[in-house]
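Friendly challenge for the regulars: who can give me the structure tokens for this chain first? No prize, just bragging rights.
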Amino acid sequence: LEPIHHSKRRSTRAAGNSPTRSSSIMPSVKSLPKLGLLLKDGGPATPGDGALENAASWPFPIETRVVKGLTTAALEGSADVPADVAAAVDAALAELKAAGCVAVASNLTSALKLQAAAFSTGGGFSQAFFSPLLQLPTLLCGFGDDDKILVISSHTKAELAENSALCRQASGVEPFGNLPQLAVLTLEAALADDAVVAEAKKAIAADPAIKAIVLERASLASAGDALRDATGLGVYEGFTCGEAFMAGYLDNPRFGEDGWQQGTAADQDAISAANAEKLKAVDAAKTRTALSKRKGQDRKASCSIGVVRLDYDYPAAKGDIDHPGSYEHDVYYRAVPRLTFTTCQGGPSKKRPSPDAADGWDAEVEADYFEAIDWLVNEKKVSVIAADCGFFMWFQSMARARVQGRPVTMSSLAMLPTLVAALAPDRQIAIFTANSTSLEPMRDLIQKECGLENAGITLDDERLLIVGCQDVPYFGPAVQAGDKVDVEKVIPHMVALAEQTVKDHPKVAAFLFECTELPPYSDSVRSRCNLPVYDAITTVQFFLSGFADNPRVGKEGWQDAWDGTQDSFYLGKNATAEDKAKFENPISSSA
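First reply, four minutes later:
Bragging rights claimed.
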């Protein structure tokens, strides 16, 4: 959460510039991380287009192992996995680990029963995500209490509950803890994409509360784009799941450290060869975007992000949620007049003492807050709602109730229950926050709003290590004094804190950067600590992935390509003349 102070602080680094890396923290160049996949026995010798086991389906290298005897029948029911199959699984996991895989998944729908094996001596992995259903706890956090998520599965709702129990046994987390918010469409046989779409549309028509879709069945992952196009809802499947977890390991190409990660020649050649034809088609589709509009073809607009901003103006650096260069999709901003940092920090219970007071919540601020959300949803048609301060968590439930069919994510802590569900039970996640003391007033709120209650975990869980950054040189003092933060000077000290954290707590297997000022340091920590780092940007990108065209898999040409340009923003832009007069901070002369 943001530290307790009276203004927003951001980097002095000029927008678009990367920090100069000192030789003292220069990392060695690392290869692209690999995802390991356990494959069911009896599958096709050559992976089909859009299959999870096809290298062309992923933006990073994968390593696969077919496991003898690994079938749906071997994993169904309450009985233990047959001894010969369990031995083959252990051997395959060990091979994937030796091949350099950082995490493991499977193309078998019922593979949650293997979660414990991945964490044990067979593989010794710290992260395993054997079901797209592990996305559910985070998704449930983003949607309203009356919204439902449609799970398209080969299982019944009762069987999903059994799978949830399997995950609890492996990682101690109940990923599907809020079953009333799940609607289940059971498909016993594999269907073509158009048939899946038809069944999904029937289910949505019968239950209009459905606002998102999760494809549990591995063979349906390639239907994601067809469902996005046909329903307009966020659709999450094996690819969004795998890419969300792997994002923590990958270099962010838009900001942060450069040149610390690259694939080996063999990896890069394999990916290039596998993707060549697919990417040709994607490029061709992009060049047809303008023509398609002129011809009146029915394409969906490129997905986008809406960010509710404080009544505050500052030069944001890349990596900040308020810098449009932090994203690879359109982002639109709307500031709420008189919603100052102090007002946001206090939450709705801290009332404005008088109409002329600078800070405090009242009916007018609430109305302007809703007006900003309505403008982002109705005028800009954004896919995901976010905010530029962790203290907006106070207002998340209000936003979720206001928004229909779009997820709201006010904090990267929304990723916690999903990350823990995929974490080995003897491992820890280090949560970096700008000031650890600022978590305390919001502890109960975070517990509820970030989905921890539904997942069956608490902030006191021994697997969650909260680390305050208030003593980091050039960062903590600047934040406390209300000065701007010099990103370039902070980098070596933030890296030092991360390295010391791992040294003092060797069970740490991942970092979650909570504060919106921390993403500029994510790549530096990834490169030096060799551990995944998740932050506000990876969280927003996860929610957005449910609405975005997958350029490698599934239906093509249904969504306009992003044109690569962003709208500029200055305080007062997009506000009405009446609202401009309300801002506490000076609005831009351009407004």
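Residues 1-24, 264-296 have pLDDT under 50 and may be disordered. Residues 92 and 314 are 52 Å apart (CA to CA). Your move, everyone else.
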